[in-house]
Amino acid sequence: MKSLHSRLVFVLLGGTAILWVVAMFWIKLTTFSEIERVLDDRLVEAANMVASLAAQPGLGQADGLGRAAEVLQTSPAGPDPHYLRHLSCQIWAMDDTIVGSTDLAPSQPLGSDAPGFSETVIDGERWRVFTVVNAEQGFRVMVGDRLGLRDELVGGLALAILFPAILILPGLAFLIWMTIKGGLKPLERLARELERRPALDLDPLSNAASIREVETIVSALNGLFARLRSTRDSEISFTAFAAHELKTPLAVLRAQAQIVSMARDDATRDQALKGIEDGIHRTDRIVRQLLDLSMADMVEVAEPLEVPMSVEDILAAQLADLEPQLQAQGIAVALMPDVTAWPRLRVGEALLSTAVRNLLENAVHASPPGGRIEVSMKQGPAGWRLDVTDQGQGIPDNEKERVTERFFRGRSSGAGGTGLGLSIVTAAMERMEGELSLAAAPDGGTCASLHLPHRVFVTAGSDRAAA
Q: Other C-beta atoms within 10 Å of 201: how many?
């Protein structure tokens, strides 16, 4: 596993080294250009000076050329003889005879006969030459500079820059290493605190460092701890409530079974068997709703269905399961509007089926014998709304905010309610990015509405393609 400290040191040192190399090459290029300009100016100045000496008024041609040659031979070495002696000068007559030259100048012409700059190669060495032509007095002055000297100057300057960098780099690396180490200490303290923390300790972390970046991490961790604590508390409550809800029907089943074993007449035995059947039915509903709640909490909206499913088909499947209860209570279910208006579901079939089943069960449980349940679906700007309306007693105003809590049973829920139905629907809607709303029906009872976004349904074009 890579260390953040080592990674930062490597990145900063690497970046510094790259910038240093780029800067060195840039300085070399710009310095070389500047040296070229300065040395070219020196060539021009030297050539013009020698030409001026040779053409001084009042001297004959021979005297002028002789004096210029004498100056060339006796020029002072200057502060740096090494560089000065690399500058060579020649004076040529127009008949290509040499009049004078410096000591180290070659015997052949340094440059071309034309005035201006030129470059030549003499004995394998490249020269940069400036030529001044005085046609009136019949001579040429050539002043040349070895290009190797210029490369030597630039190389020496680059080395002068690189050498301190090589010396400084280890110190810079140590400074960067220490700086990053000190900067990462708050994270190391946070890591040690998390390592020492017990697994069940979900209390908020303290941010003693007061550093913005660390504070962001601590705030995120505290938010995570708060969510985990809430989830843990919910699971503890869920387990306790589930155990309590299952304990009651199991106790009833045990009692009814004892009655059956001790019954002396058929009526008592039949009544006890009916109690056992009711207890099994209630236990089955509790177990199924607990599974539904677990599924709604964990299942995400999955990949699109290979064949989009009509909401009417989902309703038909759930009503078929409830048919025995509907017939037993004489409850009629009306689907509004016509089935051709129902949309086709693209994703979340299991979640919507769970939500619809629990809404219908709640409606059946709340409806009086011979009642009527209406199911309708309408499209709006934000999506679709599925309404399930019963003719029960309705939800009291003081219970509306709590009816979606797990295991909450209001006054109208009766003995057969588990307090899980609406909480299952709410969990399923959260997974589908939808919403459950409850309102009083115009003729009494409750209208439970599922608000579903457009994205969970197929579009008109894809619906036609699927058909």
A: 9
